[in-house]
Amino acid sequence: MSYKFPNNFIWGAATSAYQIEGAATENNRQPSVWDTFCTIPNRVVNGDTGEVACDHYHRYETDVKLMGELGIKDYRFSIAWPRIIPAGRGSVNEAGVDFYKRLADCLLEHGIIPHATLFHWDSPQALEDLYGSWQRRQMAQDYADYVTAVVSRLGDRITHWMTLNEISCFTHMGYAVDATPVHAPGTQLTSKKAVWQTSHHALLGHGLGCQAIRAASPRSCKVSLVDNFCVTVPLYESPENIAATQKAFHTCGSNGGIIFPALTGAYSPALLEILGEDAPDIQAGDLEIIHQPLDYLGLNIYKGAYVRAIDNEQGYEILDLPKGYPKMHMPWLNIVPESIYWGIRHVSDTLGRKDLPILITENGCAAQDEINAQGEVIDSDRILYLRQYLKSAHRALSEGYPLTGYFLWSLMDNFEWSWGYDRRFGIIYIDYQTQQRLPKASFHWYRECIRQNRVV
Hints:
456 residues
């Protein structure tokens, strides 16, 4: 099989603001919850921060030139709320807006379409101080006002918008009960219900954000949500295991309370039954706001959970992986290439949204990259990972599922959240001492995939 993709297939790469921009205090930017989180002892490996990161704020022209050499025509990045509205609400910082104008103009000059994520975890610390950010419904409205400010100013240059990135990560991993959350804001709450309320408020933000984008954009635009739902994968593809996998999809991770209401207008009944009194409070009209029409769905897929049919009350079992199961350079990053195929298939079949085009908005891996004696990074392990996942994506296309594009994570090594600079996801190596950029072997491999429009 040649693993050829359609001629109009989108080949892209992705980054996020806090992970690469740096310039944490420049031109009136105020702290995000991640700036604060990084100052708390023992929360981030080596005490790293995003204060400088990859210095993309000052080096974006160099980075865009590298994108041109890579051959991508589409680039996904995020916009930092604390740059645009430093206090979280109120007056707009035009100097912050100007950076994204310059970035978008540079991309367009190189023939690259900008895809902007409006929120990638870096909420303003000011709103955390004021009312606890996502713990309050007010956060959804303040987010929508921020969206209006951005889209009204950048909508002449940017027509592809993504509301929120990975709701579960900045809610269910940023708030917890009787545990220390691994992500910012790192807040302990008193009940599971309070945690689920944070993700409900984020969903409201998504819905209001969709409305704000469409109202504020001066041009015709496309709107999406980016989610990283738990992908259930049949241990092997028997009819029984496939049915069990679809059933397990409702209650795996936070699926039933995030992707279900966003795409179907209702929380999964199976999840609500499990949550009982821990289910979030849902006010009249909330689900209608949340269930906005989307032009496409962005899926961030790195791994999956194997499922088999079993004679128990649920009719399925989510399986633990054996000790020797292969993984990349993160504790959670198990290699499950079929997860891309099943993630796409679940949207069409399990969620019943055959109408909805899909972009893989993130897929990639951390590897133990080293510069060899010849000054190269030969990351053949990353190429192995990416090649298998792209073949799985091709399978979805070959079976008629509406996959329209793929954004590799990540364009460059970056600040990897609570792992700091200890883990590298990029296809461009960053020397953080000198800020030198060095394309890895995977960069050249991906460029050839793009050139030939197939998996090589």
